[in-house]
Design a protein that fits this description.
The chain is built from 13 helices and 16 strands. The protein has about 400 residues and is α/β, with parallel strands linked by helices. It has two domains: about 160 residues, VC0802-like; about 220 residues, HUPs (Rossmann fold), CATH 3.40.50.620. The strands form two sheets. Strands 1, 2, 3, 4, 5, 6, 7, 8 and 9 form a nine-stranded mixed sheet that branches. Strand 11, helix 6 and strand 12 form a beta-alpha-beta unit. The longest helix has 19 residues.
Length: about 400
Amino acid sequence: MTIIVRYHEIALKGRNRPFFVDRLAGNLRQALSDLPGVDVRPLSARVSVEVGDDAPWDTVRARVGSVFGVANFSRAQPVPADLEALKRAALDGVRAASFSSFRVTTRRSDKSFPRNSAEIDRELGAAIHEATGVRVDLEHPELTVWVEVLRDRILLSFAKYAGPGGFPVGTSGRVMALLSGGIDSPVAAWRMMKRGCRAVLTHFHAFPLQDRSTIDKTRELARILTRWQLRTRLLLVPFGPVQQAVVAACPAPLRVVLYRRFMIRIAEALARRHRARALVTGESLGQVASQTLDNMIVIGEAARLPVLRPLVGMDKEEITEQARRIGTFGVSTLPDQDCCQLFVPRHPATAARREEVERAEEALDVPVLVAAAVEGAAEERFEFPGPTGSR
């Protein structure tokens, strides 16, 4: 089968466009790599994908529809490079469809074809109108007939499926995304992937002070997100010793802010090891006590790398809806023992001041605690399609 992939934002990249298109083509090859007969080739403002006819269309559609950079795509029918052959194939196709208006949209990559795009639109549109009596509507057609004129054939399609848009993963650098077992952080990581970043996922756990449920959830979230970015590294960081040290030496109201500052420091150290250029969190302004503006500022000051918060202006309903769409919501809502629930004070500070936080940290050996957590981090790797959870 033949699929025509179209992109939008990539087309605005000027002289850098070949880099983005090549990465899009490579990601499409990876997403379909376990299917027979895969051949991906960039065309003029399009990408052509060939897959063996015995590959399940539902699988192909789901895979292509999850590759960032794809604006939309169509399953296409190859036709000989002849206008009369195109008319016959188009008429066969529209007779099987029900529609009240249509238009023909042609892209002619082969400029040697004897008709230009506008002429093909007119002649094919006239043939369809004459055969069906259905009116032409160039603005809001119920059916669009897509025509791609290549050097050796014409590709004809009648349906268009939406892709996720954005930029191909791997075109915007690498980030370190802090991943809890909750709803927000997987969405934050996904949104950075959509902008072309590859996300290294970092999860903080309190095992053996708590059970392994949050670790299991995070692995499953990593598997789901890997369907979007194709290759993932998940770092599992033991955080219990840090929490015990904070509880033993620091004022209770500051615990949550101190935990977050340690997470930021540890994630930054791991980011430098993995050549990530920014940190990503799932924070949304005002959603919980640690996410007030004052606390977010104090927490962010623990890092030298930029801290990106793609959800900062979204509310819970918006984030939840996006989690449902990307497939993480069901896993995120499973019960678990998250480390952030351990030793949480009854009245956490909502407007922590830098001076009081730094004074509390003087009671701790911050570099030693950070180094121990970094050295204790375990790495797991995931690939899609293919084996997942390999260490």
